[in-house]
């Protein structure tokens, strides 16, 4: 696509608009100010809002998030940027033991309106410490919201919703999507959580994909239609917590088949979870076992060939969809 | 007592001594109630550390933020939280400071600016810096005091946050309650530098040691640091040397220290010492001390009665305050456990079956032998 604005610009616009709207919103992270963000998402923010509201942090992930937790408990609305999802592992104590638990364990006396943005995903030969997909890890934590936008419009609208939300939000961005262009509404449109997007309608098989895999799912759907005469319905849940399970259930009750695509690992993954929910609630509607397409069960390798082999692609989704159709045609 | 320390006026002495005696009596009673199985989990008592707690709280203004650790009943009480609310929290009851959600380690009272009990060693430090950051962001004049034990100085949070606070001149006083043990590991066995105030040097800020058994010395020292920070100074580190007479938690066999060491510290008891100088000075009388003792006794027994009478949290509150519900978060985001098909729109939450199963679970007798078998240390 060449129309519209880039994904990274959409995110930057969301932050800038929310900062203009609410003086309590500030941005903090490693190299977000002078360097303008390691992926240039915070470009221009320092110039417009100054050092008080756009803060370069030392490389101290756990304390950086912890500071955000404390500031949020004091009523500010911090947007913390972590340089990659892998670095979020250094902050898991603050994310899980504190941000997620505090509103509950202190009985609602304080809120933690904190957004933690983190880019992740593979495809850039960054090897096993900079390329992972931890949606499933965060999805498991009660108290967190987990957002996974796949288009520039959603990136902007969902980040605005995240900043306005009173809960701690894990906001996962896929590095491969930063350069993607797309139409973004001019208005200050907020995309609320818990509403899946049906990217393509179809009646034969439901394909659920998140982040970059939402696009892979759409590509697979095109191939299925063109080469196999199969009409796939593609659903992007957009947020994993809250999860719009109803839209997915409505779809599988119609198609009776489901494929779930994610870049993360298979064990205990997004697909494993979703597949269980579908089985629990729509078992009688299923005509075939649910298929999962996931990243390979290895730390992400550096070698281009190995890395590409480890990341799901449209071909693997097509095969999974065909497997659900076996005997049906 | 430090030489040349001025004995404050009668009212101040009554206040300091009263708060220390209340906390001492509260902790003793909490330990007793724990032995009677009125409380579960862990129980960390601060008996012996009252001067550090009360001296610090006395140096603070009502709007200042105090952040504590998991040994934190006294900090809340010193800040003004009613002992009955703290005891009810220890008992896991609905009238506790956290409605029974947090327990002994997670007392919290926003109204009195006691910003929490935290169960993770060092986990409280960056959060405290966040309060200070917010104060600076808004141009306020509140100071945050972050207390933590000697064990926490070895956590990454300590180094990370000290650096950030010094770098950004955050209005915060770090106060290490050095009781010479990180759980069962002695200071010289866990820290390469045993003069913990010197840790400040690496961050280019001031560090000062104070006798944490001397309530007047603590109050004087911490006041000076707080007011310097309030006046726009850089953050500081105060090391208060103190001691807990009881074990790390209620069932600590204390194999790591000699009884004689505990006895030596008891000689420096913060309450006995303060009573002595107040009597010597004549600012207080024996009758005053006895009246405070009786008042503490009364307040603590009332707290136990209150906690005992407070109901357990209702089961349908299980999911309360997990999320702030709003445009992004409805009920369906909270509980997908129901085995029954549902649309997720029910405002009532759980289905009848879920409700019944929760009730059955809650009514199980806790098998104390099971704790013994699994070796859970309490």
Structure description:
Helix content of chain A is 40%, strand content 17%. Chain A contains 13 helices and 14 strands. In chain A, strands 3-2-4-5-7-6-12 form a seven-stranded mixed β-sheet, sandwiched between helices. In chain A, strands 9-11-10-13-14 form a five-stranded mixed β-sheet, sandwiched between helices. Chain A has a two-stranded antiparallel ribbon with strand order 1-8. In chain A, helix 1 (7-21) packs parallel to helix 8, helix 3 packs parallel to helix 5 and helix 9 packs across helix 13 (314-325). The longest helix of chain A is centred in the last third of the chain and has 17 residues, at 212-228. Chain A is globular and about 65 Å long. The mean pLDDT of chain A is 96. With 378 residues, chain B is of the alpha/beta class. Chain B folds into two domains: 10-309, Thiamin diphosphate (ThDP)-binding fold, Pyr/PP domains (Rossmann fold); 315-374, no CATH class. Helices cover 42% and strands 8% of the residues of chain B. In chain B, helix 1 (10-35) packs across helix 11 and helix 4 (83-90) crosses helix 11. Chain B is globular, with a radius of gyration of 22 Å. Classes of the chains: A alpha/beta (329), B alpha/beta (378). The interface between A and B is large, with 58 and 54 residues.
Brief synopsis:
Chain A contains 13 helices and 14 strands. Chain A has helices at 7-21, 45-53, 61-73, 85-88, 92-99, 102-105, 135-139, 152-164, 212-228, 245-255, 270-282, 304-310, 314-325; strands at 5-6, 25-29, 54-56, 77-81, 115-120, 145-147, 169-174, 181-182, 197-200, 205-209, 232-236, 239-241, 258-261, 291-293.
Q: Briefly, what CATH class of the largest domain in chain A?
A: Alpha Beta
Structural class of chain A: alpha/beta
Mean pLDDT of chain B: 90
Helix content of chain A: 25-40%
Radius of gyration based on Cα positions of chain B: 22 Å
Average pLDDT over all residues of chain A: 96
**CATH topology annotation of the largest domain in chain A:** Rossmann fold
- Identify the CATH homologous superfamily of the largest domain in chain A: Thiamin diphosphate (ThDP)-binding fold, Pyr/PP domains
Helical/strand content category of chain B: alpha/beta
